[in-house]
Design brief:
381 residues, 14 helices, binds manganese (II) ion
């Protein structure tokens, strides 16, 4: 019997009830919010968002959620839709606190109507905060209506007053807005984030969908599944590069950002590339920054990974102290059913200090209000 390793998760998800918008919004708005309809073929679903439709294969979770012997443990973790059962799953897996992203909100980047998005975001957040209040181990991210800075700023303040400690940001802003490095457009939003202290959570794979693209470009053909998964990885790196290069952290020195589910070794790599650009192209660089880009990345940016074998070395060998672990519970890319095996494979050859920093410490730094995690080896009912 191996010692139980406890870890906080920088990457978890909740699944909103299917009738969330029906129950909480006028019918005229509810019917335009994202919803999934299973196709008659049983293996595809169509996501309806504000008059648009995206058809995709239903993720084949049952095949992929596996235990330590590689055996299927079912289509969904038992607690994925239940805030009390979820704690049982976490105790079994050795996961203490979680940064939790919405599911349906991930489609909100495809909504074009600012008032619809604002109303939908309030409905999601009112539900998510009730989920968070169930346990101090739950750190839910607020959904922010980013189509206009006015609606975004209003919800950032409302969410903070409700008790949120983090905000979910898509890696690219909604269709119809300019990208994260257009400082003038986003300055009111960053000011509100600085003022409220919400942690910015970028979850990978959250580029807005339009009629022709998925994650920017939806590749078909040989290797498509692997390539599309790989493509989702780059968005988080682009988002933080845009924040750094446009001087967000010069103007707002307290903002902290986590990139969830995109590995971690990219951090030192991107830091080097940004520094080289900043130094070698100095005559063309605008705005000038007070410090090197890498310093902002190493200090303000955190990253959460689940299986990546190279990620631990981003901290132990490359000196990026903000590497966090994440379970991706309850998604099929995640570790449910084999979390302890994964944690032992990742950390058995790592010093206890480095391991505790990645599994517990970096997360605690972002969310100091979370109660202390159990010591390794401890069991909870
Ligand atoms: Mn995730």
């Amino acid at each position: 019997m191996t010692t139980k390793i406890w870890a906080n998760s920088g990457d978890s998800h909740l699944v909103e009830p299917g009738d969330l918008f029906e129950q909480n919004l006028p019918r005229s708005l509810a019917e335009r919010m994202p919803r999934s309809v299973k196709d008659p073929d049983g293996v595809h679903e169509t996501i309806h968002v504000d008059g648009q439709q995206f058809r995709r294969p239903i993720p084949a979770a049952a095949k992929f959620l596996t235990d330590e012997e590689g055996q299927s443990v079912g289509a969904r973790a038992p607690g994925s839709n239940d805030k009390e059962l979820r704690l049982k799953d976490l105790n079994q897996e050795g996961i203490w606190a979680e940064l939790i992203y919405p599911s349906i909100g991930i489609w909100s980047g495809s909504i074009r109507d600012p008032e619809l998005l604002a109303a939908g975001s309030r409905a999601i957040n009112d539900w998510a905060i009730e989920f968070q209040r169930h346990s101090p181990r739950y750190v839910c991210t607020a959904t922010i209506p980013l189509l206009t800075s006015e609606t975004a700023v209003a919800e950032i303040h409302r969410a903070t007053d409700l008790g949120f400690k983090a905000a979910y940001f898509p890696v690219a802003p909604p269709l119809g807005t300019r990208d994260w490095h257009y400082s003038d457009d986003w300055e009111p939003v960053w000011s509100a984030i600085q003022e409220t202290g919400l942690v910015v959570g970028f979850h990978i794979g959250t580029e807005p969908h339009d009629d022709s693209t998925l994650h920017g470009a939806y590749l078909r053909g040989p290797g498509g599944a692997v390539l599309n998964y790989m493509e989702t990885t780059y968005g988080g790196q682009r988002a933080v590069s845009k924040m750094i290069a446009s001087g967000v952290f010069d103007r707002h020195p307290d903002i902290k950002v986590i990139v969830s589910e995109g590995g971690a070794t990219w951090g030192p790599f991107v830091a080097d590339r940004l520094d080289e650009a900043y130094r070698q192209h100095a005559s063309m660089v605008h705005p000038k920054l007070r410090r090197l880009p890498s310093e902002y990345l190493y200090e303000h940016i955190y990253a959460s990974f689940q299986h990546d074998r190279s990620a631990v070395a981003a901290q132990t060998a490359m000196g990026w102290k903000n590497v966090c672990w994440g379970s991706d519970y309850p998604h099929l890319e995640g570790t449910y059913g084999h979390t302890q095996k994964t944690l032992h494979e990742l950390f058995d050859d790592v010093s206890p200090e480095a391991r505790r920093r990645i599994t517990i410490g970096a997360f605690e730094e972002l969310f100091p209000h979370v109660p202390p995690a159990p010591q390794d080896g401890q069991e909870l009912e």
